[in-house]
Amino acid sequence: MNPNTWYSPNDIQTIFDRIAPVYDQLNSWLSFGQHRIWKQMTVNWSEPKEGYIGLDICCGSGDISQLLARKVGKTGKVIGLDFSQELLAIAAQRAYDKYPTLPLEWIQGDALNLPFEDNTFDCATMGYGLRNVTDISRSLQEIHRVLKPSAKVAILDFHRPSQPWQEGFQKWYLDNLVVPLAEYYGLKDEYAYIMPSLERFPIGTEQVKLAQEVGFNSVIHYPIAGGFMGVLVGSKTVSSEQ
Ligand SMILES: C/C(=C\Cc1cc(O)c2ccccc2c1O)CCC[C@H](C)CCC[C@H](C)CCCC(C)C
Ligand SMILES: C[S@@+](CC[C@H](N)C(=O)[O-])C[C@H]1O[C@@H](n2cnc3c(N)ncnc32)[C@H](O)[C@@H]1O
């Protein structure tokens, strides 16, 4: 797959609708179950508390939404938003089967045009979404807009490690394990999309700058999982600080 290929929002939506049936299984196998730990770390960095209203953007099959909902408890509420109808249906069914009483709501929508009023949420998360949106700054701007002042966002995604041997290993792993396994399920092109999307994705320091530009403060990018993944954390500025 050519790293210079431009993917339209429709292409991205089609990729995720197509991989929906195997998405959870492949993530568990390919990360040796580690993705659950990375997702829990992300939720913790968004600092959810009992009674909070949380938003999980690009929620996919809803792993992070579930973890967030367990933190805000029955007095709170979590909205999982995604544009893939297939993944949202899986998210709703999985959450109902495992935690039927969790305060979760599922909304089909666009991360670049969030269907919420300004200053609505007490915390927000996004897992493996920022690399997939077609306009990163716009997406960060939308998250900033819907958060209440001083609320936190935590954004998990792949990260390109700084050591050349690690970067080589990451590419090898994606090309030689991830793509061939996906090919077995008829999803070669969909998974081959990860590497070029990662090559285009801003590194940690660039992500920090983009978040600051849209108004976030106390912005930090934490490399995790040996630098193969990263979590971008920021707070919405209280208006007197601007
Ligand atoms: C949950 C994970 C990835 C989600 C994901 C994100 C995308 O943007 C996709 C795009 C297209 C198809 C699928 C996805 C997608 O599944 C992360 C875990 C799965 C990874 C494939 C595993 C990658 C492992 C690391 C490169 C190296 C291993 C580190 C070690 C396990 C500590
Ligand atoms: C790799 S999945 C991540 C799912 C989930 N957060 C997780 O960590 O497993 C990326 C998700 O982003 C969604 N997505 C990508 N661009 C989007 C957009 N502009 N608006 C809404 N959802 C989007 C896809 O449909 C997909 O479910």
TrEMBL record:
Instruction: Return the similarity comment.
Output: Belongs to the class I-like SAM-binding methyltransferase superfamily. MenG/UbiE family.
Among CDD domains, the record links this protein to: AdoMet_MTases
Q: What does this protein do?
A: Methyltransferase required for the conversion of 2-phytyl-1,4-beta-naphthoquinol to phylloquinol.
- How would you classify this enzyme at the top EC level? transferase
Going by the UniProt record, its keywords in alphabetical order are: Methyltransferase, S-adenosyl-L-methionine, Transferase, Ubiquinone
Its recorded reaction(s) are: demethylphylloquinol + S-adenosyl-L-methionine = phylloquinol + S-adenosyl-L-homocysteine + H(+)
Any idea what this protein is called? 2-phytyl-1,4-naphtoquinone methyltransferase
Q: In which pathway does it act?
A: Cofactor biosynthesis; phylloquinone biosynthesis
**UniProt-listed Enzyme Commission number(s):** 2.1.1.329
* Record GO biological process: methylation; phylloquinone biosynthetic process
Q: Which InterPro entries match?
A: MenG, SAM-dependent_MTases_sf, UbiE/COQ5_MeTrFase, UbiE/COQ5_MeTrFase_CS
- Which molecular function GO terms apply here? 2-phytyl-1,4-naphthoquinone methyltransferase activity
